């Protein structure tokens, strides 16, 4: 009896222990599961946050790259602020091409636009689009990069050498403050606070701004055309130039700059250079000790120069120089320059007719160069001086012509290799280039000129200040979104 009672009590005792144990184990498993779920959820949230931060940083980087590309396309805008100091200097906020510019920036943009229209028929439209985009960036709006990523320009400030020490050889610094943004798939950039998955990143980028000398004066050859007045008329719509053109005004729907088969790098282009900054050089002095037979010539019939049979005398440097009142050749008359001889004409009146100087096929080529014939005209013998180069289909003229007060022009489909500098091009009635004919092909070396006509280094330096170029990023810094006042990221 006692044994049965003992066994019964032991059995009931084990049943009372198993139930609490099972409940305890279940509780432990539940807590462990909840902990793992919370940890997994936290890890997932952390990964999502890290991805959002990384996307925001990528957005900032993409925005900086985009703004740099835009500024490289419209480099004059690198020297103005985005939305401050807008008058009289100009800023991004007021940047546009207008018929009557009111700020310095608008004047520069109008010149760029006209030059772009000369160089390429589509370049002007592309330039306008990029100017518009930079103007839009000044408003602080978010711009879509795709994949729920955005960027916006907080501000851009140009610090010139009066505000901050410029970089070595540079003009100043461009300081770009830009934000990148990452949103959820349903996010709205206009309601960032309502998106728990949104992440913003702000960077401050410092870019050195350097001067860039005018391309037309950095080559070994002189510009094919340099006109002080800059105007072309509709009658010369067909004129093309294989070379650099300085101060050329032209219509929008023309492509006047032609690149030869072996185009230089960088290619030829039209450039606007302020004549007050880079003025025309002075004409060389007319020699005063020439023999009488080489003075006061009236060239109205065919002749070959130098006139060795007449005993023409060269200068100590081997140049045959002549003072000419007028060159007026009609019919089949023409002036021929003997290949390999160096001839300079100092002309007082008009120049109209066929002049031949052909170095093609001359061996060695160093003996005969386009600069072997140079014509300097002062216009003292005419009230409205003109140059009309008549170059027939089978003719070739290689020469450098400098006539600051003359209206320049060329008729015929023959080749004119060298350079022509004057007051304007294409205003001579009856002196129009043939359809699709190249009016001038660049080909005279600076070293071939009898005197140094290259603009002075100080003038080119002044022009270079108006043609900025962006250097490599000098400083990249992240700063808090709510930063106000002076940025600590600017070194």
Question: Main attributes?
Answer:
491 residues; alpha/beta; 6-stranded parallel β-barrel; 4 helices
Write the layout of secondary structure elements.
Layout: H1 2-73, H2 104-119, H3 123-137, E1 143-146, E2 149-160, E3 172-182, E4 199-211, E5 225-227, E6 240-242, E7 245-246, E8 270-271, E9 297-299, E10 303-305, E11 319-328, E12 334-337, E13 342-347, E14 351-356, E15 373-377, E16 386-390, E17 396-411, E18 415-425, E19 438-442, H4 457-465, E20 468-470, E21 475-478
Helix pairs in contact: 1-3, 2-3
Account of the 3D structure:
This protein has 491 residues and is α/β, with parallel strands linked by helices. 23% of the residues lie in helices and 27% in strands. The protein is built from four helices and 21 strands. Strands 1, 2, 3, 4, 20 and 21 form a six-stranded antiparallel sheet that branches. Helix 1 packs across helix 3 and helix 2 packs antiparallel against helix 3. The N and C termini lie far apart (99 Å).
- What is the strand content? 25-35%
Query: Structural class of the helices, strands and pairings?
Result: alpha/beta
How many separate helices?
Answer: 4
| Series of H and E elements | HHHEEEEEEEEEEEEEEEEEEEHEE
Q: How many strands, what sense, and barrel or not for the largest sheet? A: 6 strands, antiparallel
The gross shape turns out to be elongated
Integer average pLDDT: 86
Count the E strands: 21
- The N- to C-terminal Cα distance equals 99 Å
What is the radius of gyration? 37 Å
Helix percent band: 10-25%
Question: What ranges have pLDDT less than 50 throughout 5 or more consecutive residues?
Answer: 233-237
């Amino acid at each position: 009896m006692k044994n049965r009672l003992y066994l019964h009590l032991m059995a009931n005792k084990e049943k009372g222990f198993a139930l609490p144990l099972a409940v305890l184990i279940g509780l432990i498993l539940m807590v462990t599961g909840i902990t793992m779920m919370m940890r997994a959820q936290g890890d997932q949230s952390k990964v999502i946050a890290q991805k959002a931060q990384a996307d925001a940083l990528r957005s900032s980087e993409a925005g900086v790259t985009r703004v740099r590309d835009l500024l490289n396309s419209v480099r004059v805008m690198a020297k103005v602020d985005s939305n401050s100091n807008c008058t009289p200097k100009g800023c991004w906020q007021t940047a546009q091409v207008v018929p009557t510019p009111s700020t310095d920036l608008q004047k520069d943009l109008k010149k760029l636009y006209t030059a772009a229209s000369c160089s390429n028929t589509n370049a002007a439209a592309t330039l306008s689009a990029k100017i518009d985009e930079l103007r839009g960036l000044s408003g602080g709006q978010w711009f879509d990069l795709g994949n729920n990523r955005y960027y916006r320009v907080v501000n851009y400030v140009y610090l010139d050498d009066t505000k901050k020490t410029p970089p070595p050889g540079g003009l100043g610094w461009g300081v770009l403050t830009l934000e990148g943004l990452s949103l959820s798939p349903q996010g709205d950039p206009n309601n960032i606070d309502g998106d728990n998955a949104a992440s913003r990143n702000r960077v401050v980028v410092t870019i050195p701004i350097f001067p860039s000398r005018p391309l037309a004066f950095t080559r070994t050859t002189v510009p094919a055309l340099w006109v002080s007045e800059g105007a072309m008329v509709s009658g010369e719509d067909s004129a093309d130039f294989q070379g650099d053109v300085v101060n050329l005004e032209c219509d929008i729907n023309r492509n006047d700059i032609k690149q030869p088969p072996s185009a230089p790098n960088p290619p030829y282009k039209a450039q606007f250079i302020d004549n007050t900054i880079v003025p025309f050089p002075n004409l060389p002095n007319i020699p005063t000790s020439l023999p009488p037979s080489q003075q006061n010539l009236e060239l109205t019939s065919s002749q070959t120069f130098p006139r060795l049979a007449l005993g023409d005398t060269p200068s100590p440097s081997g140049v045959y120089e002549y003072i000419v009142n007028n060159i007026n050749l009609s019919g089949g008359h023409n002036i021929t320059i003997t290949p390999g001889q160096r001839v300079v004409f100092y002309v007082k009146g008009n120049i109209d007719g066929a002049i031949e100087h052909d170095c093609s096929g001359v061996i060695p080529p160093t003996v005969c160069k386009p600069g072997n014939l140079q014509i300097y005209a002062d216009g003292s013998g005419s009230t409205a001086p003109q140059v009309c180069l008549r170059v027939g289909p089978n003719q070739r003229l290689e020469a450098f012509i400098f006539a600051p007060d003359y209206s320049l022009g060329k008729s015929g489909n023959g080749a004119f290799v060298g350079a022509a500098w004057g007051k304007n091009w294409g205003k001579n009635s009856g002196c129009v280039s043939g359809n699709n004919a190249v009016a001038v092909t660049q080909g005279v070396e600076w070293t071939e000129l009898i005197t140094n006509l290259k603009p002075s280094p100080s003038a080119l330096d002044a022009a270079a200040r108006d043609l900025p170029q962006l250097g490599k990023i000098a400083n990249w810094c992240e700063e808090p979104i709510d930063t106000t006042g002076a940025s600590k990221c600017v070194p």
